[in-house]
Design brief:
By secondary structure, the protein is an alpha+beta fold. It is built from four helices and six strands, in the order ααββαββββα.
């Protein structure tokens, strides 16, 4: 398969995930992940536990969403490096109790296998995410 087609397929999955997330379709989001998905948090996060499997990912997502009135993903850029996609953007959230709004930059690398997201890794900055996606 030509690399341009592969790049389009991998970035399309990530963009579709963001669209489903923003529409509130969490089941649809999870349909885009493989059953054995792995989520690796950034080393600078307080939560350092790697999640394994769609059930663990679902539970974590539901707990996290329960803390917020709303959480949207703003996608600023999506770049493919083979089967890995670097996504840069922001979480735009509103506190459930406080009503305060905020925005937090996000830098992620998605590994896409057989049309589904198999691994999601979080990074502190865009350069680190790109370096990881390139295998550096």
């Amino acid at each position: 398969m030509p690399s341009l087609v592969l790049a389009s397929m991998t970035t399309d999955v990530v963009l579709e995930m963001a669209q489903r997330w923003n529409s509130g379709d969490i089941d649809g989001v999870l349909d885009l992940y493989s059953d054995d998905v792995v989520m690796t948090p950034s080393p600078h996060w307080p939560e350092t536990v790697q999640l394994k499997g769609k059930d663990a990912f679902r539970k974590n997502t539901e707990e996290w969403l329960g803390a917020w009135g709303s959480v949207l993903i703003e996608t600023e850029s999506v770049e493919a490096f083979g089967d890995r996609v670097v996504a840069h953007g922001a979480w735009v959230s509103t506190g459930r109790v406080s009503g305060l709004e905020g925005s937090m930059p996000i830098h992620m690398v998605f590994t896409v296998r057989d049309g589904r997201i198999a691994h999601l890794e979080w990074f502190e900055d865009h350069d680190s995410a790109v370096a990881s996606a390139r295998g550096a």
